[in-house]
Specification:
233 residues; alpha/beta; globular
Length: 233
């Protein structure tokens, strides 16, 4: 049964995909059009040489009050899971003589805390770099993913944009979940897929993380294009 928000109305709603379109149609009488990402679609794909071995898209949030996400799961739980994931990814880079690049969030008010977060994780390690996000340069994150061999992360919108732009991209669906969040916070929501696929996993175990990065790195460009065409909508 459809539920309409009768007290609020807009003429048009523009969404990233058809699955989100259906969600809005269930709560509104607006005309809903799936347009993709305006920012990504207005930034031309740069076929430059790859300069970043492995690019991690940070979703760090500076959380002094430990905000509760749902039930007993807090934002600190989210951050702890991300920290574990990043360490496992970094270990893969060390074993394979790769450099891990961190693309921070565009939130300038947490820039210092975010950099310290990663410094504390890696301590005196050398084969990682924290990139400097440029203010009001909307092309910068897209140029960065275009120049990356593999882009990895959890659930940032930039990950989905990176995948759609053709870059090898891996989603680690490792957020803490309860029965509610398992339905609302997962890879490709609201679309439902298995917990593991050719470029995503719900495991935060080092062996599984290392394996999927290795598998994606070995996929040739022709087969990667087939994967993109199958899932990009």
């Amino acid at each position: 049964e459809k539920r309409y928000l009768i007290n609020f109305y807009v003429d048009y709603i523009l969404t990233h995909n058809f699955s989100i379109k259906k969600k809005y149609q269930n709560i509104s009488k607006s005309l809903v059009y799936p347009t993709g990402s305006f920012l990504s679609n207005n930034s031309s794909i740069k076929n430059k040489s790859k300069k970043y071995d492995l690019l991690f898209i940070s979703t760090f949030r500076n959380n002094k009050e430990n905000v509760i996400i749902n039930d007993k799961i807090s934002l600190n739980d989210y951050i702890k899971a991300e920290a574990i994931l990043v360490k496992h990814i970094f270990e893969y880079c060390k074993l394979n003589k790769k450099t891990l690049f961190i693309l921070p969030t565009p939130k300038k008010n947490q820039e210092f805390a975010e950099k310290q977060f990663f410094k504390n994780l890696f301590e005196q390690e050398e084969n990682w770099k924290f990139l400097k996000r440029k203010n009001n340069d909307f092309d910068y994150p897209y140029n960065t993913v275009d120049q990356s061999e593999i882009v990895v992360g959890i659930d940032s919108t930039l990950l989905y944009e990176s995948f759609a732009r053709g870059t090898k991209t891996i989603f680690f669906d490792i957020r803490p979940k309860n029965s509610y969040l398992a339905k609302k916070r997962h890879f490709a929501w609201p679309k439902k897929y298995k917990k593991d696929g050719p470029f995503w996993t719900s495991s935060n175990e080092p062996k599984k993380i290392h394996q999927i990065i290795k598998n994606v790195s070995l996929i040739n460009s022709k087969d990667w294009k087939k994967i993109i065409n199958k899932y990009k909508k």
